[in-house]
């Protein structure tokens, strides 16, 4: 049976055989422009299918699925990262495809009944190859601004009018609007659909400001609220300072970089902001500049029975949260924050109180930071200030709390290291990583660091001893 992949591979082979990469230089002006249009027509069909596939990946990676999310099962934070790993596109391109695919994807209700796509006119034109991804994304992006308050009938009229302009069926027929021209028209429609816009009202804003933590549900706690504009501006600058992507692979060859797709930040924008807030909270708690609780910095106490931990079953509990915590999360926190053993008798009396253990000291953390530079998983751009220290060999297996057994991992890679497929081992005190089989079937081990001084040493070594 011929699969979709077989068909696409045959099509790719046919195009590669029919098209000469260097032929354009010999074409006439007319031939050149006709070829550009014909290639774009083919590209529109490919882009439509790319968006559809991205939308389906996002659907199978939605939060409601929990640990069964496709992205999680493949060791990725999000659908966008999974697409990046599989396709080697940038994070921005992966998110653009997902947004387009989700907005033009037919929906299914809880009982299985079908619903049309959020933007059905765009979906139809996109699927027929009459509308390009750039134009479709521009229309959706601008109309989404007004969608919450727009009349549905007026919104549909706007969608139809903009698609007509983009496909050459509008007032300017047969000339098509470019994506930039379309953006101007879409912005005008957005203003028409929401004429009130966002008029500043300082007094009303002061009354409405606030941050709320919702009820624990599906393993998450919702956070909602409204910020004053100046507070939001400061928070955005904080995000900008810490979330600017880092590029380059330093010690990696081009082939290795292609395997790892180490081209910058792999998290979605929402997930990055979540991690920034988490790090801000942790930093504030450790700073000593905030009120203490019982004379100590605010600390989350996680309790778990030793028998459950040994048998890898049951749950843990954290004070300040209404949800039980998975044992995997508890082990993650133990690896990061250490443990203190408390022994009870059958009646519940405290019989023995052990001292805290398994915590890397500040001196050890500084040494490990100088060696690793940040999260050691290739392609992860989380800097050292935001990461945790992972025991490569667990304490229960005899692993020491020593720099030769500790590596820097960001919260996500630390949380999923046992299930993501990434392997870590130490060779003479140097971290080596092995990618998941789906990412690199060869499964080779490679030394990993983002330390600028160590990368500089490696560059000097390569220059002094160039490959033969």
TrEMBL record:
SMART domains in UniProt: HNHc
Query: Domain HNH nuclease, which positions?
Result: 363-415
Report keywords, A-Z.
Answer: Endonuclease, Hydrolase, Nuclease
Q: Per the record, where are the segments of Basic and acidic residues compositional bias?
A: 455-468
Q: Which Gene3D superfamilies match?
A: 1.10.30.50
Task: Report residue spans for region: Disordered.
Answer: 441-468
* Keyword Isomerase on entry: no
Question: Which superkingdom is the protein from?
Answer: Bacteria
Write out the similarity annotation: Belongs to the Rv1128c/1148c/1588c/1702c/1945/3466 family.
- Can you say what this protein is called? HNH endonuclease
């Amino acid at each position: 049976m011929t699969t979709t992949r077989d068909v696409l591979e045959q099509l790719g082979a046919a195009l590669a055989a029919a098209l000469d990469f260097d032929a354009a230089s010999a074409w006439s002006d007319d031939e050149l422009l006709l070829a550009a249009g014909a290639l774009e027509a083919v590209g529109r069909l490919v882009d439509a299918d790319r968006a559809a596939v991205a939308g389906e990946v996002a659907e199978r990676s939605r939060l409601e699925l929990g640990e069964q999310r496709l992205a999680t099962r493949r060791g990725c934070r999000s659908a966008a990262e999974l697409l990046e790993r599989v396709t080697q596109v940038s994070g921005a391109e992966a998110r653009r495809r997902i947004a387009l695919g989700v907005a033009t994807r037919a929906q299914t209700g809880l009982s299985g009944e079908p619903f049309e796509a959020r933007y059905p006119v765009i979906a139809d034109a996109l699927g027929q190859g009459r509308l390009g991804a750039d134009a479709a994304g521009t229309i959706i992006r601008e109309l989404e601004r007004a969608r919450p308050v727009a009349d549905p009938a007026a919104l549909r009229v706007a969608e139809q009018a903009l698609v007509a302009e983009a496909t050459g069926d509008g007032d300017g027929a047969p000339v098509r609007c470019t994506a930039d021209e379309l953006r101007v028209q879409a912005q005008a429609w957005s203003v028409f659909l929401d004429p009130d816009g966002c008029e500043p009202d300082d007094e009303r804003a002061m009354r409405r400001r606030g941050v709320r933590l919702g009820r624990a549900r599906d393993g998450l706690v919702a956070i909602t609220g409204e910020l004053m504009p100046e507070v939001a501006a400061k928070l955005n600058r904080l995000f900008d300072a810490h979330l600017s992507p880092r590029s380059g692979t330093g010690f990696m060859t081009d082939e290795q970089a292609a395997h790892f797709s180490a081209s910058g930040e792999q998290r979605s924008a929402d997930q990055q902001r979540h991690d920034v807030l988490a790090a801000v909270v942790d930093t504030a708690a450790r700073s000593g500049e905030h009120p203490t609780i019982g004379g100590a910095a605010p600390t989350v106490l996680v309790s778990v029975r030793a028998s459950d931990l040994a048998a890898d079953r049951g749950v843990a509990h954290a004070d300040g949260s209404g949800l039980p915590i998975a044992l995997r999360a508890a082990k993650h926190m133990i690896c990061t924050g250490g443990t203190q053993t408390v022994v009870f008798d059958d009646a519940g009396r405290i019989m023995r109180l052990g001292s805290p253990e398994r915590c890397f000291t500040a001196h050890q953390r500084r040494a490990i930071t100088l060696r690793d530079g940040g999260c050691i998983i290739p392609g992860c751009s989380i800097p050292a200030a935001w990461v945790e220290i992972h025991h490569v060999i667990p304490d229960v297996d005899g692993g020491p709390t020593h720099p030769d057994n500790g590596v820097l991992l960001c919260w996500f890679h630390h949380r999923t290291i046992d299930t993501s497929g990434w392997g870590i081992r130490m060779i003479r005190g140097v971290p080596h990583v092995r990618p998941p089989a789906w990412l690199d079937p060869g499964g080779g081990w490679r030394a990993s660091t983002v330390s600028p001084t160590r990368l500089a040493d490696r560059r000097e070594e390569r220059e002094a001893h160039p490959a033969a």
